[in-house]
Amino acid sequence: MTVKTEKIDENTIKITNEGDAVITYYEFRGTPQERPVHIGPNESAVIKLKPERKRSRADRKARKSKI
Amino acid sequence: MAFPDLWGEGTALVAIAPKGGSDVDFATAITSIDIDMGDRDFDAIPTLRGGRLIKPPPEDVTTITFEGYPVSLDTTSTDVWQRFFTTSNNWTTSDPLSVSNSRNRENYRVVILWTEDTTVTSATAAVSNEALRAIFKNCQLVSVKPSFTDNELKVTFKFKCAPYDKSGNSNITWESTDGTTGLSALSSYS
Lengths: 67, 190
Fold this sequence. Notes:
The structure holds 2 protein chains of 2 kinds. Chain A is mainly beta. Chain A has one domain (3-66). Helices cover 15% and strands 43% of the residues of chain A. Chain A has one helix at residues 57-66; strands spanning 3-9, 12-17, 23-27, 35-39, 43-48. The relative contact order of chain A is 0.22. Chain B starts with 11 loop residues before the first strand and ends in a 13-residue tail after the last strand. Chain B has a single domain, classed as Pnp Oxidase, Chain A, CATH 2.30.110. In chain B, a hairpin with a 4-residue loop joins strand 1 (12-18) and strand 2 (23-25). In chain B, strands 1, 2, 3, 6, 7, 8, 9 and 10 form an 8-stranded antiparallel sheet that branches. Chain B is mostly beta strands. Classes of the chains: A mainly beta, B mainly beta. Chain A binds chain B through residues 1-3, 17, 19-26, 29-30, 34-36, 38, 40, and chain B through 15, 17, 22-29, 74, 76-78, 93-95, 97, 121-122, 124-125, 185-188, 190. Strand 3 of chain A pairs antiparallel with strand 2 of chain B, so a sheet runs across the interface.
């Protein structure tokens, strides 16, 4: 295969395109923040799979109350 | 801002993606594109006094035919054989690659872009200069014909696209820009 995928962490992958075709991956695929990443021949890109969730005030409150 | 007199050599890009997958740009392996847009014909039924009633039959399917030189079964490149025989869930990714024919069929999005902007590398990308783009969704790869008659392995392959999906939504979109606003990058095909 001309594309190598390395897992960096649970939410991040590195894609290296060793072929001769441009490949388009989508960061944050299926979310409103989705954005295309075009990876040309002999290029690589680091892609986040899911956007990091912003902690809401309610989350922070809930966390505090547990402590 | 002016369109060229015609879209000529070196202006076309083609991106093909299975549903839920990545787009692969086929421009490096394709030599010709032929879009047989489905006819929107009508029948004219003569009435007793010589009038005509226009009866529109359903819009025909569109066929997109490519000629090119795919060289392997690598679906991260310009493969047609794995794409033809089975779904993306079943594509093999470790060498040696192999595929057997199956009853599974995949849906594809085929995107064709014409632009003179050489910084644009994918048919799905945003374009800020003059451009013309055709987007065909829910296509199936219905024909793959390899031939080695001229001492070269040439493949003619066809995608077929119904004009509408089951719910009646359009499967075919054409868009163009003179560069005033530009074309947006396409979302993933899901």
